[in-house]
Amino acid sequence: MFICDNISVNEKGNLAFAGKDVTELAAKYGTPLYVMDENKIRENCRIYKNAFKKYFGENALPLFASKAASFKRLYEIMTEEKIGIDVVSSGEIFTAIKAGYNLKNAYFHSNNKTDEDISFAISNGIGYFVVDNIEELIAIDKEAENQKTVQNVLLRITPGIDPHTFEAISTGKVDSKFGSAIETGQALEITTQALKTKNIKLCGFHCHIGSQIFETEPFFKAGLVMLDFIAEVKEKLGFEALQLNLGGGYGVRYTENDPVFDIDASIGELSRFMKEKALALGLNMPKILMEPGRSIVANAGMTLYTAGTVKIIPGFKSYVSIDGGMPDNPRYALYKSSYTVLNASKMNEKADFNCSVVGRCCESGDIIQENVPLVKPERGDIIAVLTTGAYNYSMASNYNRIGKPPVVMLGDSGDYLAVKGESLEDIVRNDI
Ligand code: LLP
Hints:
There is one protein chain. 30% of the residues lie in helices and 24% in strands. The protein is an alpha/beta fold. The chain folds into 2 domains: 7-37 and 298-428, Lyase, Ornithine Decarboxylase, Chain A, domain 1, CATH 2.40.37.10; 109-292, Alanine racemase (TIM Barrel). The radius of gyration is 23 Å and the shape is globular. The protein binds ligand LLP. Ligand LLP binds next to helix 10 and helix 11.
């Protein structure tokens, strides 16, 4: 009935998440509240882990793209689930360290790592840098020399795939701000440079074609383009890549209109295409990595709000104002992202009140969702926004000096706080 199997309605007619009445969670912790289903995160990790093992062998490793959600408890779960991590800043690296995560399986991304980031990552023993361009390669080499070490790297390659208009393959993403493009010759150039750079150990290549993608073809195409590139490098430079990281990007269901993406089947098919291709090219299959973010945490998350003003503008539209908004979820404001919104306090009544669910910031663009059918709320009802586990907490801001909400996890032993909410004192903590 719902977009994910961890959502249900209980005997009181309230919404339940991972079996827990969300109105009780709202009463216990207050709202706005991010809620995360620990078992769903683990289940999603295992879907990748098992598919990788089944189709690509023991050596293959999924990484969690922590830009989707980053706080200490998540890295502890990744340690327990034996999942690697993709990190994009010193802040994410520091959070992982604080959670006791072993950085051996951490891959450091970003198109512009600062000298401070590079130094911090190397001194903390980051497993791999995913190097964006030659300038960065030189900066990493210099710092590795300073720290008397040899740094493992992958090179970020732009395969020229446009995931949304698949026909326009070869030039679609060449102009991306990320990576070095095959088409322009820069990919081969950076590989040549990496192989002769003293304090750099080249381990392989990386690509990432985009996010929230439901078609499988762009992923297959990217895999094949990357194998072609690996073969070209082998032939021209005598180097055979040991690792190939195919990035993240699998889509998740925000509403009933989104399809169900079968991760296991897609990885299975990808592996068949790639094995055939590797054989045809006379290559050994490299260690395969992928770095999903959204599909690990999105459906493990839900945000709870309390309804405030219900405003009806006769002949025009109706608004339901909630006690959060774009500071805790900027995705509608940024991308017009779809969400399913429910009146969690009145699940058995008819959802016939068409409205816009809006936040409390002083800005008209502070919208969570427009034109949603809701059971007409009364002030104090709990409003749930589903599938908020990815890119919500991690993208939250303090706009209007609103504190970030707490994150509560639902696990086998009950509900527990993973991240405290920000207090008014927290809001001024850095003001001098
Ligand atoms: N690897 C790289 C290099 C990436 O840039 C990304 C996402 C991922 C992996 C993870 O992709 P995922 O599996 O989560 O699709 N803020 C946007 C999403 C930005 C994605 C950026 N890169 C949103 O809220 O939709």
